[in-house]
Specification:
By secondary structure, the protein is mainly alpha-helical. It has one domain. It is about 60% helix and about 5% strand. It has helices at about 10-40, 45-65, 70-85, 110-140, 155-160, 175-185, 185-195, 195-205, 225-235, 245-254, and strands at about 145, 170-175. The protein has a two-stranded antiparallel ribbon. It is found in: Membrane. Keywords: Membrane, Transmembrane, Transmembrane helix. InterPro entries: EMC3, EMC3/TMCO1. The EMC seems to be required for efficient folding of proteins in the endoplasmic reticulum (ER).
Length: about 250
């Protein structure tokens, strides 16, 4: 026996549906601006650390693009890069020793990173918890709209949260379900109001908890290991120029 359709009050969209959507958008914009104001200013990286990374990129670029050089240029660069990569001239920190894993938590920079993570989590969860409590308190049990397209019964748990009516048509949407639809579906609105980049950052804050900061110390590859590995790659690099036989190739194509 088919379940008869419900007759919904048209005023629901003005007093329930639109207020929930408006509050969600407003809180998202406010949180984005507050997060921007509370975010710490980026710190300049030390000169030696930048030089270490750039020299390693230079060596990797030589390995990837050596085909544009002739034999003499490759030989000269190989000799220079292998000599420097096997030395400590471009290390950011010389004489690094193995550190105690627990000593990383005493680093002020890591403590500041964890504090910033805690602030981000608070800015993410507190507003959403308040909005969810507000929707549950004032609009619990409301059926606010009917979808204009058919959906399968698998969507019933997602669209009718808070409505204990097993025989209700799955196309009807409850108020708390509309909250979740807005929570994960407001990206186009944020993109229109804030721009794509800011909208992506805001959506990522809403959907997942910010990860743990990258604690320094043991765990990552050391500079000497990266340099030596790159030196070995350059040492076995063969000479194969893209200009070899270019005249014959051009003439053969014509």
């Amino acid at each position: 026996m088919a379940t008869p359709d419900l007759i919904l009050d048209p005023a629901l969209k003005y007093w329930v549906l639109l207020p929930i959507s408006f509050v969600m958008v407003l809180v998202g914009l406010i949180r984005s601006n507050v997060t921007y104001l509370l975010s710490p200013k980026p710190k300049l990286e030390p000169y030696r650390a930048v030089r270490e990374k750039q020299f390693l990129k230079r060596a990797q670029s030589f390995t990837q693009n050596s085909g544009v050089l002739n034999a003499r240029e490759i030989r000269d660069r190989q000799q220079f890069l292998i000599e420097k990569l096997n030395s400590s001239d471009f290390y950011a920190k010389e004489g690094e020793e193995e550190l105690d894993p627990l000593s990383a938590f005493a680093d002020p920079a890591n403590n500041e990173a964890m504090m910033n993570m805690a602030k981000g989590n608070m800015m993410n969860y507190i507003p959403q918890t308040v909005i969810m409590g507000w929707v549950n308190y004032f609009f619990a049990g409301f059926v606010i709209m009917k979808l204009p397209f058919p959906v399968t019964d698998g969507f019933k748990g997602m669209l009718q949260t808070g409505v204990a009516t097993p025989d209700l048509n799955v196309r009807y949407v409850s108020s708390i379900s509309w909250y979740f639809v807005n929570l994960f579906g407001l990206r186009p609105v944020y993109s229109l109001l804030m721009g794509d980049k800011e909208a992506n950052e805001l959506i990522s804050q809403q959907n997942q908890q910010q990860g743990m900061p990258n604690i320094g110390g043991p765990g990552g590859p050391k500079a000497d290991k990266l340099f030596k590995a790159e030196a070995e790659s350059i040492q076995i690099l063969g000479h194969e120029s893209i200009f070899d036989g270019i005249v014959e190739r051009v003439l053969s194509e014509n």
